[in-house]
Amino acid sequence: MSALSHAGEPHTMGSLGAKLNWLRAGVLGANDGIVSTATSARGPILTAGIAGLVAGAVSMALGEYVSVSTQRDTERALLAKESRELTETPEAELEELAGLYRAKGLGDETARQVATELTAHDAFAAHAEVELGIDPSELTNPWHAAVSSAISFTVGAALPLLAILLPPADARIPVTFAWCCWRWR
């Protein structure tokens, strides 16, 4: 059980981080999509709106992909370093793990016992979780972030585009103005 979990609760730190990453990408994408589209003739509005929507969605997706790929590469490098350290200096790593548990408030004997038992069970996972805060089985996924960002940008951009395209010509500007006022309230 994770040091951060409570009795009977599943370990969720890794999956929570992934979900928060999706949420962050989604919020950024939707916000950028909302403010990226705005004339009163349907043809140019539709053309410009779709062009802006597609360009923005692709831009957001690529930005998220690059950002999250960098994060994942960093996670992989840290995990590779930890794996090397466990192979080259296992006793020092055991002491380091026990020290981390002492820093969390466990007594010397208990910290050493927890570190020993976790090391016997899965040393790599124990060190990755406690030292690095990484679950090796749940690394960030750049494709998830990219798709989330592209979809949320598209939805965010489509709403004001529809607000100006759907009403009759004489109502487009007031409807768009009302949309913007509601959005920025």
Q: Could you characterize what this model shows?
A:
The chain is mainly α. It has one domain (15-20, 41-183). It contains six helices and no strands. The chain has helices at residues 13-34, 42-88, 90-103, 108-132, 142-165, 172-183. The radius of gyration is 24 Å and the shape is elongated.
List the helices and strands and how they pair.
Elements: H1 13-34, H2 42-88, H3 90-103, H4 108-132, H5 142-165, H6 172-183
Helix pairs in contact: 1-2, 1-5, 2-3, 2-4, 2-5, 3-4, 5-6
Short structural description:
Residues 1-7 have low confidence and may be disordered. The radius of gyration is 24 Å and the shape is elongated.
Please work out how many helical segments DSSP would assign: 6
Q: Report Rg.
A: 24 Å
Secondary structural class? mainly alpha
Please summarize the sheet with the most strands.
none
Low-confidence blocks of residues: 1-7
| Strand proportion | under 5%
How many domains?
A: 1
Arithmetic mean pLDDT: 83
Whole-Å distance between the termini?
Answer: 44 Å
Q: What is the number of E strands? A: 0
Helix content: over 70%
Q: Describe the global form.
A: elongated
Please provide the ordered H/E string of secondary-structure elements: HHHHHH
